[in-house]
Amino acid sequence: MTAIDAFPVTTHPTETAPVPTTGRVPARTSLPACPQPSRRGSQAPPGRTGRLALARAQVAARYGVSRRRADTAAPQVAETVAAAADLPRSVLDVQLSHRSVRRFLPRPLASSVLPTLVAAAQSAPTSSNLQLWSVVAITDPARLARVARLCGEQEHVRDAPLLLVWVADVARVRALAARRGRAVPATGYLETTVASFLDATLAAQNAVVAAESLGLGTVYLGSVRDAPEALAAELRLPRGAAPVVGLVVGHPDPSCPGRVKPRLPQAAVLHHETYDVERQLRPVAAYERRMVDYYRGEGLEGGWVARALARLRGNGSLRGREHLRSALTALGLPSW
Ligand SMILES: Cc1cc2nc3c(=O)[nH]c(=O)nc-3n(C[C@H](O)[C@H](O)[C@H](O)COP(=O)(O)O)c2cc1C
User: Which is the closest atom of ligand 1 to the Cα of 245?
Assistant: First the structure.
C-alpha cells in the first residue's frame, strides 16, 4: 500500500448530485478536454540512469522544451533532482522539520543550487499563469554589505553565501504590452499588485522547501521592505518591480542547530465551516504557556503574546514599512 492508499478519496457531494430534470439547469463552466500526460518519462528504467532520464523529462516539461534541451533550460537541475532521489526525507518530513537558520558556514553553495531553487520556485502555481515575479540572486560581498545596511543590518545578510530577493514584477508584462502597442490598465489596480506579491511569495516558499530538502538552511528577510525604494535602486529594478521578501540560503552551522519553533494549536487556526473567535482563546492561552517555556529554553524571558504585540505596536516597530503604500506607488506598483 502506498502512503496515498492510506487516505481514501472521498467524493464531494456535488459530484454525485443528480442533474435536475425539471426547471433550469444551472449554467456550468465547462472545462477543456483533459490532456493526458506523457508516460514516456515515467517508463524510464530504475537506477541512476533511469532517474536522470526521468528528472530530465520533468525539467523539460517544466520549461516546455525537449529533453535534449533540459540541461540548457535549467543547468544542473536534472542531476540535482536525480541525486535527491537518494535523500531519505519526504516532503512532509522537510516541512514539519522547518526552522529558520541564521548561522551559516562560510562555505559557498554548489553551482547547481541556484538553478535548482529557481526551478522549484517556478514550479509553484502562479495567478493566471501571469508569472508576475522575478528573483535577484546576490553573492557579491560588497552588494551584500550594502543590502544588509538597507535591511536593518542583520548579521546573517552581510555574511550570506546567497541572498535571493523575491520581486513583485509587473514590469515584464508592461514591457511586453508596450512592444505590442497594447494597454494593460489592469496592472494599475491593487489586485495586480496583490497577485504579484502572492506569486512571488509562493515561489519563494517553494524554494525554501527545496533548499531544506537538500540539507540547506534558509531565513526570510521581511526587512527588504524597510527601504524598498533604496533597495530597488541598488538592484536596478525597473519601474513596476518591488522587493517582496528576501531569502538567505546557506549551509547551516551545525554548532548552532536551532530548534523547531512551536506553532499555535490547530484549534486556534482551523475553523470548521465558519470562523469562531471564542474557541481560539483557550488554545492560545495553552500555547502561550508552552512558548514561555520555549523562550526560557532559549535564555529569553516572556512569551508569544508580548512578542507579537511588541512587533505590532506601531510605526517604530515597522522600521519604515509604514510607508509601504507610497513606496509601492513610487516604484510603479499600484496600492489602491
Ligand atoms: C515574510 C517573513 C519575513 C521574515 N523576516 C525575517 C527577518 O527579517 N529576519 C529574521 O531573522 N527572520 C525573519 N523571518 C523569519 C521568522 O522570524 C520565522 O519564520 C518565525 O520566527 C518562525 O520561526 P521558524 O521559521 O524557525 O519556524 C521572516 C519570516 C517571514 C515568513
Answer: 1
